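Handout, section 4.2: multi-component inputs.
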Amino acid sequence: MSDWQKVCSVTDIQLGKWYQTDLDGTIVVIYNLDGQFFAIEDMCTHDGAILSGCPLEGDEVVCPRHGARFSVKTGEALSAPAWEATATFPIKIENDNILIRDGRWD
Ligand code: FES
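Output:
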C-alpha cells in the first residue's frame, strides 16, 4: 500500500482544468469537474498517448491520437480503439490540499 502524497492545493486546479503529477513513477492527471476531483493515469491505454491537456467533453477526456474516450470519473474506456480502462487513484482533501495514493497494489 502506498502512502498518501500531497499534490497541490484545491485552488491550483480551477473548474474544468487539470494538474499533472508524478506518483512514484506513474504520471497521474487530476481533474476538477464541477468542484469534485478525480485522478486517473495520464495515459491512453490504446497506444500510450498523454491525456492531460486533451479536450474534455463533460466528464470524458478524448485522446487526440485516435479518438478514444475515457471517463475521468472511473477511468473506463468508453470508445474504440481503447478497450482497457486507465488506472484511477483515490483522492482525499485535507486542509485544502489534494492528496492521492496508489491503491492498485492493496
Ligand atoms: S493512442 Fe489514444 S486512441 Fe490511440
